[in-house]
Please model this.
Amino acid sequence: MSAAPIAFEAVYAPETRRLAGRAFRDYQFKRYGLLMIAACVINAIALAFVFWSGVKLGAIVYFLVFVVVIGPLQLLYLYFLGPRMYEAKLGLVLAPAGQVIVGSEAVTLPGRRGNIVFPWSIVKVVVEEANFFLLVLS
Model:
């Protein structure tokens, strides 16, 4: 026997979208941050070893330099500008206000072009905050 769906009105104010973007960034960095930082450090160590060993500069070494430089820049970009990207995506997809329906099979959110249905099978985790909940899809 399935339970009756729960419906409530939600308003997606700009402040809520901004907080959701930051919450998603925090979730990503809490989960993958140390791994990404470790990858940058390992790449830098490999580049230092290549220069220390006196390898002739070629395409592979230039590619390694590119990876070592871009890795930390991408981390900074994702940390500082990532929440704004997520905020903009939410603003484009979600309606400013509408009815949210949480059922046993799916979650329905109000979209700008109609309702958006997310089956629970594609929801990876639900991040709960004081003013909202954030669905992280797989």
Remarks:
- Residues 14-53 form the longest helix (40 residues).
- The chain has a mean pLDDT of 91.
